[in-house]
Every structure is written in C-alpha cells, then in structure tokens.
Please model this.
Amino acid sequence: MNLSWAVIGQLDYFGGHLHLDTIDIESKYPCMFGLKSGSNMKTSVTSTIFILSSLAWTLLIPGNALATQGHGGIEGVYAHQFAHLFFIISMGILIYWLRERKLVRETGWRFIQYAALFFILWNIDTIIVHALDDQIRIIQTQSVGTWQIRIDDAYSNDFIKLFYYFAKLDHLLCVPALVLFYLGLKRLKETSAGDSKTS
Model:
C-alpha cells in the first residue's frame, strides 16, 4: 500500500459541489515530504531516525551554557552601560505615568510599579559593578575553588571588596522585580477576566 496517496477535497465555488479526487501527492508535491520524487518509504524512515537522533543528542548531551557574558573591548562595556541607563530612564518614565494616571490604585499596576522600582535599583547596582570590574578595573576576581572566589582590589581596601561582593548579589534585586512584574500581570489578567464575566 502506498501511503503517499491521499484524498483531496475541492470545493467548486460556482456549483457549490464538493469533488473528491485521489492523487499521488508524493510525486505531485515532493517538497511536503522532504523527499525527491519517486523515493521510497525507507528514505523517509531514515530521515526521521536521523532527525530524532540529532534531537536526542542535543537534549541528552548538551554543551556548556555559560551564565556570564564577556564584553569585547571597552566599547562593549560602554554600550552595555548605556543600555542599563536607558532601562533606568524607561522604568522611571513608567513609574511616572502609572502614578500620573493614578493606575497604581489597582493592585496589578501597583505591583508593576514596585517591579519597575526594583529594576531601577538592579540597574544602578549593575552599573556600579560593571564600572568597578570592567571600566575602572579596581576589582580583580579569581576562582580558587568550586565554591570559592578571591576578590582583590587595587588599593587593598577591605571595604571595597565587601561592597563589590554584596553588589554582585544583584539577583536579590532582579528576582523580586521579575516576581512582582509577574504578579502584577497576573492580577491585571484576573481583573480583566472578572470584568468581562460581569459584563
């Protein structure tokens, strides 16, 4: 049995009738199967096995996914710093308009306002950290073990090292911002769904 035969329905718009025809779609439309015209089922099975094997290889034996991004040259750092500055200004404008239009009376918008505030704090923190280790180059870090890192500074000042260490914990600002943003959107969706049901 040739699986590439199909029943194709065509609607005759002028007469309003449905005509059913059988055609060999493999030979007529070979691109649908990724096959050359006239190839057999073995080629299709081989292609499927190859694709599934490649997918399994990618999922079961992945490469390294590095969590940090290096910046090529100082110009990369400047562009990155400007992006943080732009993000700060954007979140400030968002807070301004939420308060100006009195949207913060609703819980969802209030959560989004708090998220914007945490994003501003996170960006300020990140700008400082980038300045310390990428621009001014006061701080040098070195991995000395699996869970250990050595922080050196140009002035041998413990306060700068401690400040840098706590500033690197920027996830303590970014994660709450993301959670608050999610909760705000969720609350707005629930409020919107509740309004549409009562209408």
In short: The longest strand covers residues 5-12. Residues 73-198 form one domain. Confidence is low (pLDDT under 50) at residues 1-23.
